[in-house]
C-alpha cells in the first residue's frame, strides 16, 4: 500500500492482491447479495472502510463527483449530515479501478430492522420518517452549486444508529451535477417494469436505458421501502394489478388516504409526493393486518408460491 498526499487530500494505492486480501465487512446480516458490502483497511492506525465494488468504468465521472463531494464537504455536512461522505481516494490495480474510504459504520442496517418481526412497528416507522425528512433536503442545497439526489435509495444503503439517527452509506450512487456514477440503474428503478412504459417517460427520464435520478425517483424508492416494511416482503416484485389489490385491502383497514394516494401517484404523470408525514398515523393493528401473508390469508389468495 502506498499513500500520497496532495495538500489536504490523500490518495491510497493498492494492488489487486492487497485489495482482495482486505477483510470484508457487511453492514447487513440479511440483505441479499451482500448489498453495500465493504472492505476494512487500517490507515495510520485507524480503521476505514472501502467499498467492495470499485469502479473501472466512468472513472472521470467518479473522480469529478469525488472532487465535488470532498471540496464541498462542510456545506453538504451542514445541510445533509445523514450522508456519509468520502475521505480519501483509493486506486486499485495500477489505477485501473477507483474507490474511496469512509468512516467506520456503527449501528444497524435498515434492511435488518424492517424484516425483523421482533422490532416494534413504531421503531420501524420512526426510522422511515427520518429517511423521508432527509429526502426533502436533497435537490438544491445551500452553499452547494450542484443538484444532488440519492439515486440508489434502498434499505441496504441506510444505517440506523444507537442515537436514533440514520446514515446514507452509498455516497457515489448519488446523482451530482448531472453525472450518473453507477453503470446500472438503482435497485428499485431497475426492478420496476411499470415505470418504463412510454406514458411516464417525461417523469422518469432515461439516458441509455438508465433512469436518471431526481426527486421523483428518490420518492419512488422511498415509498417502496415503506411498502416493504408494512408488508414485510419485497413489494417491488408485485404487478401493478396485485399492488392495487393490496392497496384496496389497506384502504379497507383505514390506512391514511393521503399515504395511499402517494403510492398510486407513482404511476401517474404527476410529481410524486413524499408521504413521510402520513405514515406516523399507522397503528400497530394496521401494521399487523398489512403483513402480506396476513393479507393473502384474509383474502383467500393461494400461498403455495410464497
Described by strand count, sense and barrel closure, the largest sheet is:
7 strands, mixed
Task: Kindly report the spatial arrangement of strands forming the biggest sheet.
Answer: 1-2-6-7-5-4-3
Averaging pLDDT over every residue, what do you get? 85
How many DSSP-defined strands? 15
Determine the strand fraction and express it as a percent band.
15-25%
Stretches where pLDDT falls below 50 for ≥5 residues? none
The helix/strand class is alpha+beta
Spatial shape: globular
Radius of gyration: 20 Å
Question: What are the main properties of this structure?
Answer:
306 residues; alpha+beta; seven-stranded mixed β-sheet
What's a concise summary of this model?
The chain is an alpha+beta fold.
Amino acid at each position: 500500500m502506498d499513500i500520497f498526499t496532495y495538500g489536504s487530500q490523500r490518495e491510497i494505492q493498492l494492488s489487486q492482491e492487497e485489495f482482495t486480501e482486505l477483510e470484508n465487512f457487511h453492514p447487513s446480516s440479511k440483505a441479499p447479495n451482500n448489498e453495500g458490502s465493504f472492505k476494512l483497511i487500517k490507515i495510520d492506525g485507524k480503521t476505514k472502510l472501502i467499498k467492495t465494488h470499485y469502479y473501472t468504468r466512468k472513472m472521470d465521472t467518479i473522480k469529478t463527483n469525488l472532487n465535488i463531494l470532498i471540496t464541498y464537504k462542510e456545506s453538504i455536512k451542514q445541510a445533509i449530515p445523514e450522508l456519509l461522505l468520502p475521505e480519501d481516494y483509493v486506486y486499485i490495480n495500477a489505477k485501473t479501478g477507483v474507490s474511496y474510504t469512509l468512516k467506520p459504520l456503527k449501528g444497524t442496517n435498515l434492511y435488518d430492522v424492517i424484516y425483523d418481526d421482533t422490532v416494534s412497528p413504531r421503531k420501524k416507522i420512526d426510522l422511515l420518517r427520518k429517511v423521508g425528512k432527509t429526502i426533502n433536503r436533497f435537490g438544491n442545497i445551500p452553499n452547494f452549486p450542484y443538484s444532488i439526489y440519492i439515486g440508489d435509495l434502498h434499505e441496504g444503503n441506510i444505517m440506523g444508529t444507537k442515537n436514533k439517527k440514520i446514515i446514507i452509506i452509498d455516497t457515489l450512487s448519488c446523482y451530482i451535477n448531472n453525472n450518473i456514477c453507477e453503470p446500472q440503474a438503482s435497485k428499485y428503478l431497475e426492478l420496476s417494469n411499470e415505470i418504463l412504459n412510454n406514458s411516464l417517460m417525461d417523469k422518469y427520464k432515461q439516458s441509455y436505458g438508465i433512469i436518471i435520478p431526481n426527486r421523483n425517483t428518490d420518492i419512488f424508492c422511498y415509498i417502496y421501502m415503506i411498502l416493504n416494511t408494512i408488508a414485510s416482503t419485497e413489494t417491488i416484485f408485485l404487478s401493478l394489478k396485485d399492488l392495487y389489490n393490496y392497496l384496496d385491502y389497506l384502504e379497507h383497514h383505514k390506512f391514511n388516504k393521503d399515504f395511499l394516494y402517494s403510492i398510486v401517484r407513482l404511476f401517474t404523470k404527476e410529481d410524486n409526493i413524499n408521504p413521510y408525514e402520513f405514515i406516523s398515523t399507522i397503528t400497530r393493528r394496521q401494521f399487523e393486518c398489512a403483513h402480506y401473508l396476513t393479507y393473502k390469508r384474509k383474502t383467500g389468495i393461494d400461498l403455495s408460491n410464497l
